[in-house]
Amino acid sequence: GQKDMVWRLIPLLLLLAWTASMCSARARTDLLNVCMDAKHHKAKPGPEDKLHGQCTPWKEKACCSVSTSQELHKDTSLLYNFTWEHCGKMKPDCKRHFIQDNCLYECSPNLGPWIREVNQSWRKERFLHVPLCKEDCQQWWEDCRTSYTCKSNWQRGWNWTSGINKCPAGTTCRTFETYFPTPAALCEGLWSKSYQASNYSRGSGRCIQMWFDPAQGNPNEEVARFYAMAMSAGALPRVVEPLLLSLALMLQFGLLG
């Protein structure tokens, strides 16, 4: 009686375990080809033939509109009324990295694995700890070390009374190298840990490239796939364990009873 009932339940439990694991894997595919819920992002990525300047690598599948891509090339864009030149002129070599960083932020559909919910007035989601390729981080730092800034975290703490970001009272304009002594300090500190300085190199398939040649395809698609798969593998045990445990208990009570 009881024993038969337990054995009949086994296929059901296995089906449940399988369904649960599929659901978690299904949720993970939603991490691919997505736009985050933020101020200027489109709801879904799509082609944008006329993307401007440094944003053109994303034109096949973009989360940004043409007008967004144009705005973020300006010294003080209307997107956020934010200026990089809060300590005087920024060198063009340095500035191009900030434009590229903005294009990645606004346009990339490959940051799903790192999107997190936030409660900010201007966005519901952000990305966190995106593994930025070693060379991209290094070059950014190299090209900017002699430009000037007054803060090591640009996400918060500015004086906004004039309508654009100004250095807060008590801060001094010094070289980037003073505020960001290493490439990692720059990439990780600048936007409150949006990026993580990766030890992986460009082309490894394990780190996100800020700079890439779209003629060779978008290398970040493979990277997003890898991390999405890794996350779904990590999610499986959490789903299956309680089911297997209940199966074990039922067997034990059933067979002992």
From TrEMBL:
Top-rank lineage group of the source organism: Eukaryota
Residue span(s) of domain Folate receptor-like: 34-209
GO cellular component: external side of plasma membrane
A single MF term (Gene Ontology): signaling receptor activity
Keywords tagged on the record: Disulfide bond, Receptor, Signal
Pfam families noted in UniProt: Folate_rec
One of the GO biological process terms: sperm-egg recognition
Leader sequence segment: 1-25
Family indicated by similarity: Belongs to the folate receptor family.
Protein name as it appears in the record: Folate receptor 2
Originating species: Mustela putorius furo
